[in-house]
Amino acid sequence: MARKKEPKAVKAVVKVPGKRFEVKMLEDDLGVYQSLVGGYIEAVDIGKGVLALCDEDGKFKGLQYNFPIWNGDHIVGTAVLVGRDGEGNFASLTEEQCNYAEEFVEGFIDVGI
Question: Could you report the per-residue pLDDT of 28-58, keeping only the tens digit for each?
């Protein structure tokens, strides 16, 4: 009888609009990510091998401003920041990536936009 494969856990930074970020261990499962962001996933590359996972329809849904990215654009709704492995899959943040992700979203707590 084949053993069921255990789900992989990934280290991620979770940023909810209006709140400070949290570093969490999450099950590496599409359903978990979709549940956290509230819809279908859009992966936005924010540099250094870090992806910001957010609701791809968040702006159309009128979700709350979370943090800026570049060129005047921004992330809305809850975001999950994860790493990316060499094959393009979601992966745990390294310590360096975790620090980068924390600095990227730090300070965007009570923006009021």
Answer: 999 999 999 999 999 999 999 999 999 999 9
Q: Does the global pTM surpass 0.70?
A: yes
Beta-strand pair 79-84/50-55: antiparallel
CB 30 within 8 Å of CB 41: yes
| Helix/strand/coil (H/E/C) assignment for every residue in 32-90 | HHHHHHCCCEEEEEEECCEEEEEECCCCCCCCCEEEECCCCCEEECCEEEEEECCCCCE
Q: How far apart are CA 57 and CA 82, in angstroms?
A: 20
Q: What are 108's strand-pairing partners?
A: none
pLDDT at 1: 53
Alpha carbon distance 11, 41 (integer Å): 18
pLDDT at 50: 96
Length of the chain as a residue count = 113
C-alpha to C-alpha distances, 81 to 11, 51, 100, 112, nearest whole angstrom: 9, 5, 10, 22
